[in-house]
Every structure is written in structure tokens, then in C-alpha cells.
Design goal:
The structure holds 2 protein chains of 2 kinds. Helices cover 49% and strands 11% of the residues of chain A. Chain A is an alpha/beta fold. In chain A, helix 3 (72-93) links the parallel strand 1 (60-65) and strand 2. Chain B is mainly α. Chain B is built from 7 helices and no strands. Chain B has helices spanning 3-17, 25-60, 68-77, 90-118, 128-147, 157-194, 200-220. The chains are: A alpha/beta, B mainly alpha.
Chain lengths: 304, 232
């Protein structure tokens, strides 16, 4: 098998093309004929689910959604399931939801999830509950500075919502401002649960939000939950160990588990058979190529 | 997703993935289109934010005395970069942003990522795993730090400790790499799933036929004069 590109146009070597072709065929088969392999629930997903459930009656959840277009397939299963569970506790426990996005793509994806998957009327301000029990503040540029601003003085940091309505006149912010102390500023201490959805590493939210406590529910500090790509899990584990983060949903796999827990089977669960096949293919390639390398080396045919 | 959206999405995905077969004008069109669309999308959202958070409060609602002017001035100063004589003024915007960013991040980093991480919890008699985790964190921190210490020669026992640090580092990086692959598999699987059902599957079938024809055409030595870009 030739390992060289068949032309000089920057195309992949023939061997690489074959690997991709086999990969696509292997993951495509379970999509046409699902096998329904079991998906066990891992402790972080269960803890994530419990964290959302434990928001007290009349509590407040702050959600920063930064899921990008490129990571939509990986992160959206968890994102959609979280939005559905949040709106469920909003209806059952009168919980207030404050959405915003620190990234331009996240703003668009967040609105898409609310519109297409949660079924909120669009434009959102046509929903009678909008501005009273939930609000979307849109894209707030400023990266980590904004995270600090949102927990120090939310109304000054986000003076208007997605539609330009002043936040200080909104019922939801009046409720949050008066809940802990009369006519108080809206700060991180008024928030019962912080949720971040992103494709980066988890430090920024831990840095800015983990020191803010929950002045109503009596929960300890570190009431942060995050949804991110599976590759970020090792970065998050030390924060959970030290009590700075409550739990996480790691990529498509975590999203599939969370869909099962919330009884909302969606795209994540349907991807899992293909994920299993893809991993088997990767393991076969790794083992096969190492065996091939060692045999070649023992025969003296390969140079180190 | 509407059928039209699904068809457009599938066509664009296949245009980008066509680079796995061969880099042609099809891939170049998709590449440039996606970059252009993203820039346009960001620009439109940026203008919306300026209109809603700057223009409307000042000029529509008439809040003339507002701290927003500080942001406006620094924002406009960053545009002085386009003229060589006024270029130095743009440094003020950058310095202001960098200063605030560093101030907000540095203080919080000390607490969240250094002080809390090196703080050792008390011995937990109810959960042995917690104690083992604490022990692993301490061993990993010390041995990896020794591995990365280049100020003295690693000899004797220090050499062995550094070797343990290197092994632990490899285990950690292996775990990260494995999980990264999980994420990398997730993206094509998610995109491919749209092509396993109608109307995406029709796009996939047509694309497969076109690629098959191209393979046969190239084997037969037939050339179409299509604008392909050669890599240097």
C-alpha cells in the first residue's frame, strides 16, 4: 500500500484516505441499524442531574451558554437535556432562569435550543413568562471580565436583554434583587446554581464564580455545573475534588447519559452505538499498527 | 431543521469532507464560504450589540452622562491603528483591556487554582478513596515538579523520582489524548447522523456517485479544466 499522496495537490496519502473511508462506513452502519447497546449512568452525570433537581423553590439559575457551531454535535445533547430539565423545574418549582452568552456563537446556539428543542415561542418576548420567570440577555462581549461582572452587579453588566428591554425594569430582576435583601444589587450570592456550557477549559467559571455562595438554599460554595467536551474532563476533576465544582457532563457520552436520566432520549443516545463502533475501530488500528511495527522491527525491516 | 436546511447543511459538510478524498475547488469554495459566513455573522452580532448597548442608551434613551462613553472612547482609539501618526493611541485601548483582564484573572487564579489546589483536606475516615485521591495529587505534584526542575542535575534518588514524575505525566497526557479522541469522534458522528436519514442521505448518495465517477475519470486519464489550486 502506497503511503504517498497520489498527486501534489495537498491531498491525504492513500492509506489515510482508506482509514477515513472505513471509519465512515463503520460509524454509518449502526446509524442505519441501531443496536441499542446499554448506556450505564456514571456518577458525574447523576450528580449533575441531582444538582439541577436540588435548586430550591423560587431559586435562581444563571446559565452561560458558549457552545460553538464546531462542537454542536459533541456538546448539544447535554445542552438540550439541561435546557429541558431547567424549564421543567421552572414550571414545577417556580425557579427563575437567567440565560446569557459570553460567546457570539453560543448566543445563536442557545436561542436555537430554546426555539427548536424546548419549544419556546419566538421571538421570546412573546412568551407571557418571559421577563418574569426567565430571560435571555443575549451575547455579552468581554470573556472572563463579564463573568466577574455578572456576579458582582448583574444589572450594570447587562443593562438590557436580548431585545433591548432595560433589565432594571424587568420583574425577574426585581424579584432576585429583593429576595435576599430589599433593593439589593443582583450578585452571585443571589444565584442558587451556576451552569456553563462551553468547549474550552473550565477554569474561568471556577475563578470567578466558585467563591460566590448560595444565600437562600444553604448549599455550600462551588455550586457550579458545566457541560464541555470529553477531552476537558481531566481539567475539571481537581476542581470537583476540592469542592469548587459540583459536577459536569463530558461530551456526547455524558449527554447521552443525561438524556436517559431526564427521560428525554435525543441525539446523544442515538449516537452511542456509532461511538462504540468508532472506538473499537480506533483500538483495532492502535493495536494492529503496534503489532505491525513490532513485527517489522524484529525482522529488522523498520528503522527506529 | 427544515428539509432545505438539512440539504444545505449536508452539501456543505460533504464539500468540506471532500478534502479527505482530494483538495479541489469544491473544498476551496466551502472553506472560503465558511470563513466569510462566520466573519459576517460576527460582524452583524457585533453591530447589534453596539446598537443595543451603546447607541440606544445614549442617543435613543438620552442617557448622555454615562460610563458607556469610556468604552466608546477606548473603542474608537483602537481604530487609530490604521494611521501611522496616530497609531500610538491605540495602545491605550489595548493596555486598558489587558490591565483589567490581568487584574480580574490574576487575583482569582491565586485563590481558585493555587491556594485551594494545594490545600490538603483533613484525613477522611468515612471515605478512603478521598484520602487516596489526596495522596495521588500530592505524589503527582511533587514528582512532576521534580521532573521539570532543570536547575540541577537529576542524580541518584532524584533521578528515580523524576522518572516516576515522567511516567505519571505520560499517564495523564494519555488520558487527555484518549478523551480528546472521544470528542473528535463525536463531531463527525453527529454530522453523519444527519446524512443517515432523508433528505441528507440523498445528498450523500449523489456525492458518492460523483466521487466514484471522478476516480474512474482520473484512472482513465481524462482531465476537466476545473480551477484546482496547487499547494506550494
Amino acid at each position: 500500500m502506497s503511503n504517498k499522496s497520489s498527486d501534489n495537490s495537498g491531498s491525504l496519502p492513500v492509506a489515510d484516505r482508506l482509514i477515513f473511508l472505513i471509519f465512515f462506513i463503520i460509524v454509518f452502519i449502526p446509524m442505519l441499524h441501531p443496536l441499542g447497546l446499554p448506556i450505564p449512568i456514571t456518577p458525574p452525570t447523576r450528580e449533575f442531574y441531582n444538582a439541577v433537581l436540588s435548586v430550591p423553590n423560587g431559586g435562581v439559575v444563571l446559565i452561560d451558554d458558549r457552545n460553538g457551531f464546531a462542537t454542536w454535535a459533541d456538546i448539544s445533547p447535554g445542552e438540550v437535556a439541561l435546557y429541558k430539565q431547567l424549564f421543567q423545574i421552572m414550571r414545577e418549582k417556580n425557579v427563575r432562569l437567567i440565560f446569557f452568552s459570553g460567546a457570539v456563537e453560543g448566543n445563536q446556539n442557545s436561542q436555537r435550543v430554546l426555539r427548536e428543542f424546548v419549544g419556546q415561542p419566538y421571538p421570546f418576548n412573546t412568551d407571557p413568562a418571559y421577563g418574569k420567570t426567565w430571560v435571555h440577555l443575549g451575547w455579552i462581549p468581554g470573556e472572563e471580565t463579564i463573568l466577574a461582572g455578572m456576579v458582582n452587579d448583574m444589572i450594570s453588566t447587562a443593562p438590557s436583554d436580548l431585545y433591548g428591554t432595560p433589565t432594571k425594569d424587568m420583574e425577574i430582576f426585581k424579584y432576585v434583587a429583593n429576595k435576599a435583601a430589599p433593593f439589593d444589587k443582583v450578585t452571585g450570592d443571589d444565584i442558587n446554581l451556576f451552569a456553563a456550557i462551553h468547549s474550552g477549559t473550565p477554569e474561568a467559571w471556577i475563578r470567578q464564580w466558585s467563591t460566590f455562595g448560595d444565600s437562600w438554599g444553604g448549599n455550600p460554595h462551588g455550586n457550579i455545573i458545566e457541560i464541555f467536551s470529553a477531552g476537558v474532563i481531566p481539567w475539571a476533576t481537581p476542581f470537583i475534588e476540592k469542592g469548587q465544582m459540583r459536577s459536569y457532563i463530558g461530551g456526547q457520552r455524558g449527554g447521552a447519559e443525561y438524556e436517559i436520566l431526564t427521560a428525554n432520549p435525543g441525539s446523544g443516545s442515538s449516537y452511542m452505538d456509532a461511538q462504540d463502533f468508532a472506538h473499537l475501530f480506533a483500538i483495532t488500528l492502535i493495536v494492529g499498527m503496534n503489532v505491525w511495527y513490532l513485527i517489522g522491527k524484529s525482522k529488522g525491516g523498520l528503522k527506529k | 431543521m427544515t428539509p432545505i436546511e438539512a440539504i444545505i447543511s449536508s452539501i456543505l459538510v460533504i464539500m468540506v469532507w471532500s478534502s479527505l478524498y482530494r483538495i479541489t475547488w469544491v473544498f476551496r469554495i466551502a472553506e472560503n464560504m465558511i470563513i466569510g459566513l462566520y466573519l459576517a455573522f460576527t460582524l452583524v452580532n457585533g453591530i447589534n450589540v453596539v446598537q443595543m448597548r451603546v447607541w440606544n442608551p445614549i442617543f435613543v434613551q438620552g442617557n448622555w452622562i454615562t460610563p458607556i462613553w469610556i468604552a466608546v472612547v477606548f473603542g474608537l482609539l483602537s481604530w487609530t491603528r490604521f494611521n501611522k501618526q496616530t497609531m500610538f493611541l491605540s495602545r491605550w485601548s489595548l493596555a486598558f483591556l489587558a490591565g483589567i483582564g490581568t487584574g480580574i484573572t490574576a487575583g482569582a487564579t491565586m485563590d481558585a487554582q493555587i491556594v485551594k489546589q494545594i490545600a490538603i483536606k483533613a484525613w477522611d475516615i468515612t471515605n478512603m478513596w478521598t484520602n487516596i485521591n489526596q495522596l495521588i495529587i500530592i505524589i503527582c505534584t511533587v514528582t512532576v515538579l521534580i521532573y521539570f526542575s532543570f536547575t540541577y542535575g537529576q542524580k541518584g534518588i532524584m533521578k528515580n523520582v523524576a522518572r516516576i514524575g515522567r511516567l505519571l505525566l505520560m499517564i495523564g497526557l494519555g488520558a487527555v489524548f484518549g478523551l480528546m479522541q472521544m470528542g473528535n469522534f463525536a463531531i463527525p458522528i453527529g454530522l453523519l447522523s444527519d446524512m443517515s436519514i432523508a433528505p441528507g442521505i440523498y445528498v450523500l448518495i449523489i456525492a458518492s456517485i460523483i466521487i466514484a465517477i471522478d476516480i474512474l475519470r482520473r484512472r482513465a486519464g481524462i482531465e476537466f479544466n476545473l480551477p484546482t489550486k496547487k499547494e506550494n
